[in-house]
Amino acid sequence: MLSTSFLNLKVMKLNINNTKDFEIIAKYLAGEMSNDEASRFEMQIESFPENKIIIEEMTKQWAQMEHYKNERTIDTHKGWQTLFNRLDTDKLIPENNVVEHRIIPVWAKWAASVAVIMTIAGLSFFTFFRNNPDLISLQTGSEANTLIQTLTDGSVVYLANNTTFSYPEKFSSNERKVNLTGEAFFDITPNPNKPFRIETDQVVIEVLGTAFNVKSDNSNFFELAVERGKVRVTLKSDPSQNQIVLPGEKISSSSNHLVKTKNENSNYFTWKTNQMQFKDESLSNIVNVINKNYKSNIKLLNQELADRKLTVTFYNNSLSTITELICLSLNLKKEAQSDSTIIIKPIEK
CB 3.0–4.6 Å: which of 64, 147, 166, 191 could bond 137 by disulfide? Predict the structure, then answer.
């Protein structure tokens, strides 16, 4: 049960990662507050623009979850209980030793909204801007999420926190050039006629089709490790210094020189899938990333589903939970085939 200390609520910014704030927002959206509690909470919402944005966005998502629940003809309480148990297993629900059983359906809906439609996380996690009219720039914040962006050529970029990534809305006819400050993992679509080039403060990286990780900041630090394929790295201050980097190798800059070594860290690339976040991404691109990282075979029934947009965050979840949450958020269903293929399709009316 939520503490009655809420009646003495201090006016402050809401933080979804704070368990107490998490509970209060859930209680408000579920209509479980008294009139006095609701009035006090609404005063808090109005006190900070950030609070208002959070509540407005999550109210929309809550309504979407309610629509899904009302459209189903199955035992919804049993369904929410099942989902709650799955979310709890995957640690999507904050620890709380005093949650009463009667509000479990509320927590299940709320946890699904947070896990699937993390609009508020997207609002605080990255900034979209255009300093150059020809370039789109994404700047991530200090949160631990990984923002995943699929480019127009099908290449996938995983952006770590505190990273700025700039790219053209449409690549030129002879090259694919982007800019990076921070850390990112690149999974590049091969195209020998249009090389992919990444420019950092220290180096120019050229690839044809490969997967690799880049770390670069505004100082003299630079490091690159290749997962597959090969990459050419050229030092900007001395273009005569360039090296080819192969899988299992990494390269860094030191005293204006490129230094190549073996990459002995088997977990070097795992950061990119711990907390995967997509912002207004097509379902087809999301499924493509999931299939690559989970070695799964998820298929969408038709192009209409493939084109649907979704903002979503997954917290190192199981494949079963990921597909279940996608279906829950978009009012879809999944069907497992004997060959391990998972078909996602609309719910038949």
Answer: 166
pLDDT higher at 254 or 338: 338
According to DSSP, residue 190 is labeled P
pTM for the predicted model, two decimal places: 0.67
Contact 211, 199 (CB under 8 A): no
CATH number of 277-346: 3.90.1580.10, 3.40.190.10, 3.40.50.1100, 3.55.50.30?
A: 3.55.50.30
Q: Which of 111, 161, 159, 120 is nearest to 315 (CA)?
A: 111
Q: Which residue has the higher pLDDT, 28 or 191?
A: 191
First to last CA, the chain: 38
Kindly indicate the confidence band of residue 10, based on its pLDDT and cuts at 50, 70 and 90: low
CATH classification (class only), 128-262 = mainly beta
Per DSSP, the three-state class of 3 is: coil
Q: Give the neighbor-by-neighbor strand order of the sheet with 342-346.
A: 298-300, 342-346, 332-336
- For the chain, count helices (H), then strands (E): 9, 19
325 sits in which H/E element: helix 319-330
* pLDDT at residue 14, rounded to an integer: 72
Using CA atoms, how far apart are residues 52 and 241, in angstroms rounded to an integer?
53
Q: Please state, in angstroms and rounded to a whole number, the distance separating the CA atoms of residues 161 and 140.
A: 5
Pair 230, 244: CB distance under 8 Å: yes
Return the pLDDT at 313: 84
* Average pLDDT for the chain: 78
Residue at 130: amino acid letter? R
- Contacts of 254 by beta carbon, 8 Å cutoff, 6+ apart: none
DSSP H or E stretch at residue 126: strand 126-129
**How does pLDDT run across 149-182, given as a tens digit for each residue?**
999 999 999 999 899 999 998 899 999 999 999 9
> What gap in Å lies between CA 17 and CA 346, rounded to an integer?
32
Delimit the CATH 2.60.120.1440 region(s) of the chain.
128-262
Question: According to CATH, where is 3.55.50.30 located in the chain?
Answer: 277-346
